[in-house]
C-alpha cells in the first residue's frame, strides 16, 4: 500500500491508497479511529457526511444519556448560552448549587465537588483518600486498594489505580501507593491482606467499580461488596466507588451500587452525567468531607453551562421515568444477546451486564474479536464498541425504544453471521 498525504492542507489526511482515511496528521495519533465522520444525530441515530444512517449503541461511550440533539437539552442550553456560560469557581454558581442539591437528595452523599471528566473525578477521590489517611489516621505513606482488570482513567494517579498492565506500559514509574486484588474474589482480597499484614494500618481506601466497564462488563458480587463494606467500616477505611460509566441510571437504578445494597463513603461520576457535555463529580458523605480551600480545584469544573446540561439530564431521567425504560430495554437486549450466544455457541460463551450496560463475551478460542465485529457492524449501520478484545459492549442512549433494540440485535446478528 502506498502512503499518501492529502493535498492542499497543512492539517492533511495521512492514510493508505485504497483504504478509508485515518485521522488528519495535525491530530496526535492517540486513537484507532473508525473510518467514519459523523456529522449529525437525532435520538439513537447518527448520520455520516455522505448521508448514511447508523444506529448508535455506543452513545459516546455511555455518555449521551438522552441521545443526540435532544429537544429539551437543545432548548435549555440555548437559553443558558444567552444568560451565562462560565464564571469559574471564584464565585457562587446557582446552576452548580441546584445540580449538587439534586445529587445529594438522590444519593447517600452529603456534598459534591465538580470537575470535567471521570479521570479528574477519580484523581480527586485519590487525593481525598490520601488526605483522609494523613488527617484522620496519621498515615505517612498511605495505600489504596484497587481491583485487577479495573479502569479508573488515563491521568497518572488514575492510571496507577487501574489494574491493567497494558495501560501502564511506557508510562512508568507509576504513582506509588496502590495494591491490587482480583475483582469479586474474597480469596484474592484475603491473600492481599496477608501480604500487607504489617501494613494494614496504612490502607486508607478501597477504590472499586460496582460494575467493571473497560475490564469486560463484570457486575459486582453482592456478597463480596458487603464484605468490603464491613472490612472498610471495621478498619476505618474509605470505600470509594467509581461510577463514572455506571452512574446516572445506566444500569436501571440511578447508582449501580444500589443493586449491591451497599453504600460507599464516596463515589465518582462523569460520562452520562452531562448527556454529552463535559462534567465529572466526586460525591462524598460527611465522614469524607475533608477538602478545604486550596486543597483541590478545577477552573472549568461545574460551570453554569455544564451543570445546566447535567441537571436537564437528571430531570429527564425522573420526569420520563427512564429507569423503567432502561430496565425493560436492558432485559430485551440481554435476551437478544443470549439468543445470539446460543445460535453461535462455538464463538460466544455468556452475556454479562445490567440494564443498558451489556457485554457479549467471545470465547478465547474463537477467531472472532470485538474489533472484527465492530468493523463489520459498521457496514450494517450499527455502532458498537469493545470492552477489551473479547467483549462486545452495548451501551446505547437511555431513551432507546423497543423497535430500536430489535434493529440493534438484528444488525448485530447479521454482522456476526457474515464473519463466520
Structural features, described:
- It is a single chain.
- The protein folds into two domains: 128 residues, Aspartate Aminotransferase, domain 1; 249 residues, Type I PLP-dependent aspartate aminotransferase-like (Major domain) (Aspartate Aminotransferase, domain 2, 3-Layer(aba) Sandwich).
- It is 36% helix and 19% strand.
- A seven-stranded mixed sheet has the order 6-14-13-12-9-7-8, sandwiched between helices.
- The radius of gyration is 22 Å and the shape is globular.
- The N terminus is likely disordered.
Main attributes?
single chain, 420 residues, alpha/beta, Aspartate Aminotransferase, domain 2, seven-stranded mixed β-sheet, 19 strands, 36% helix, 19% strand
Which CATH architecture of the largest domain is right?
3-Layer(aba) Sandwich
Give the strand line-up of the largest sheet.
6-14-13-12-9-7-8
CATH class of the largest domain: Alpha Beta
Superfamily (CATH H level) name of the largest domain: Type I PLP-dependent aspartate aminotransferase-like (Major domain)
Mean pLDDT: 93
* Number of alpha- plus pi-helical segments: 13
